[in-house]
Amino acid sequence: MTQPLLKSVRSEEAQDPHDLHTALDPNAGLGLSLQTLRKARRLTLADVSVRLKFSARQLDALENERWDELPKGLPLRGLVKNYARFLDADPEPLMHMLEAQAGDVAARPAAAPTHPRRGAVDVSLDAEPRQGSWGWLIVILIVLLVGGFYAIDRGLIPDSWLFAEWLKSIRQ
User: Are 58 and 31 in contact (CB under 8 A)?
Assistant: First the structure.
C-alpha cells in the first residue's frame, strides 16, 4: 500500500511539511491521517461538519479513532469515503486503513438471504391500508348530487330523463 493518500496539495496550503508526510504514512493511522489532511487544508471540524452533514462530535471521534462513538457498517464507510473526497485524498488507502483499524465496526453488511426464513411474514406492498380514499369518494358523490339537483332546478335535464315524480316536482 504505497499509494499516496493526497491527490494534490499546493505547498502554500500546508501548515507544516511534516504534517503532510504523516498524512502520507499509512502506518500513522486513519484518524491522524484525516486530521492532518484537514489541517493542511486549514479547515475546522465545523467546516467539514457543514459540508459532510455529520456532527463535529462524530468527526472528532473519527479523527481520534473512538470507534464506539461512530456509526457502524456502511454509514461509517460512507463517512470516511466522503471525508477523503472532501479533502481531495484518495479514498481507497483510507478505506483499507479503516478496515485494518476498525475491523468489524466498518465491516460490510452480509448479503440478504435470497430465501425468506421460516416463519417470516411476507407482506406485499398492495396490502397497505388505503386511508382517505373513502373520504374522497364521498366528496365526489356529494358534488355530483349537488350538480345533478342544480341541473334539474335550472331545467338543463329533460323531463323524459326524470324517472321519479319527486324529481319533477323539484323543477316547479
Answer: no
Q: Please tell me the number of Cα atoms within 13 Å of 51 on its side-chain side.
A: 15
Buried b (16+ CB within 10 A) or exposed e, 89-105: bebebbbebbbeebeeb
The predicted pLDDT at position 134 comes to 81
Is residue 12 pLDDT above 50, yes or no? no
The DSSP bridge partners found for residue 6 are 89
Domain boundaries, the chain: 17-105, 136-171
pLDDT digits (tens, 9 = 90+) for 48-84: 989 988 889 999 999 998 988 888 888 889 889 999 9
The architecture CATH gives domain 17-105: Orthogonal Bundle (1.10)
Band of pLDDT at residue 4, cut at 50, 70 and 90: low
Q: Which residues contact 26 (CB under 8 A, 6 or more apart)?
A: 1, 5, 33, 93, 96, 97
CB-based burial of residue 77 (10 Å sphere; 0-12 exposed, 13-18 middle, 19+ buried)?
buried
Cα radius of gyration rounded to whole Å, the chain: 33
Cα 105 to Cα 54: distance, rounded to the nearest angstrom: 18
